[in-house]
Design brief:
The protein has seven helices and 15 strands. By secondary structure, the protein is an alpha/beta fold. It has one domain: Rossmann fold (3-Layer(aba) Sandwich), CATH 3.40.50. Belongs to the avfA family.
Length: about 250
């Protein structure tokens, strides 16, 4: 883990995996810039108002707003070191759809466009590592979920999975640095001492196979902080790959 201070932008940090990563990043002293629709909700989770946490209000689908969190507060010509992307929609049953079926697709598109505009129009420099929370069950290289979960993933979660597939493709087809994180079915709470197993896929196929049922949002956020966000400037062995996380 790097000892240098990072500047990290957060899209989708008011709960779940994003909040877990944000808490650790703030506690470690990194400069964190979080975009949220209602900053007061996130501010309430940090009552001590840490100086290294900057909150900005806005929609993650608005290119101009997203661009406003992608440069360092101390130097507007330098892009942030990393972007933690964990936005998502709410799945509604029994229709098995989401409140916004394109939430991730539009979010990634806005992020990539914002980075391109900052470089072209503002002369911003840098190549942030984009760490994206996706999902298991959408691999093109084989089954990465237990057989018991296949009906659930292909029926009940079809809409959100299609959204994440498109978002992932945008990254694989682009030129930005990225790591896609695909957790197993997410749970709340912590299980101290529970080992995290890592499944790795590159463009050519599966490099390390691990299949499991569950993992907590807290463990996913912790893993992302420790392995991606805290040392983003020196790269990552997971860069350009999809990483499955499970217990």
């Amino acid at each position: 883990m790097s000892s240098s201070t990072q500047t990290i932008a957060f899209l989708g940090a008011t709960g779940g995996c994003g909040l877990a990563a944000l808490r650790r990043s703030v506690a470690a002293g990194h400069t964190c810039i979080a975009l949220c629709r209602t900053p007061a909700k996130l501010q309430a989770l940090f009552p001590d108002k840490p100086a290294n946490l900057v909150l900005k209000q806005g929609n993650a689908h608005d290119v101009a707003v997203v661009a406003s969190i992608l440069t360092c507060p101390s130097d507007s010509t330098r892009l942030v070191d990393a972007v933690n992307f964990s936005i998502g929609g709410i799945v509604t049953m029994p229709k098995m759809t989401m409140d916004d079926p394109d939430v991730c697709k539009k979010g990634i598109a806005a992020l990539l466009e914002a980075l391109a505009k900052l470089r072209a129009e503002a002369g911003a420099t840098g190549r942030p590592l984009i760490a994206v929370v996706s999902t298991t069950g959408i691999s093109t290289h084989g089954r990465d979920v237990p057989l018991l979960f296949v009906p659930l993933y292909h029926l009940a979660l079809h809409v959100p999975h299609e959204d994440k597939r498109v978002a992932e493709k945008s990254l694989f087809d682009g030129s930005e640095r990225f790591v896609i994180v695909r957790p197993s079915l997410l749970t709340d709470g912590e299980k101290p001492g529970k080992k995290i197993r890592v499944h790795i896929e590159g463009r050519g196929g599966i490099e390390q196979k691990e299949v499991g049922y569950f993992i907590s949002r807290e463990d996913v956020g912790r893993w992302m902080f420790e392995n991606l966000l805290a040392n983003s400037e020196v790269g990552s062995k997971y860069e350009g790959k999809a990483v499955g996380l499970t217990w």
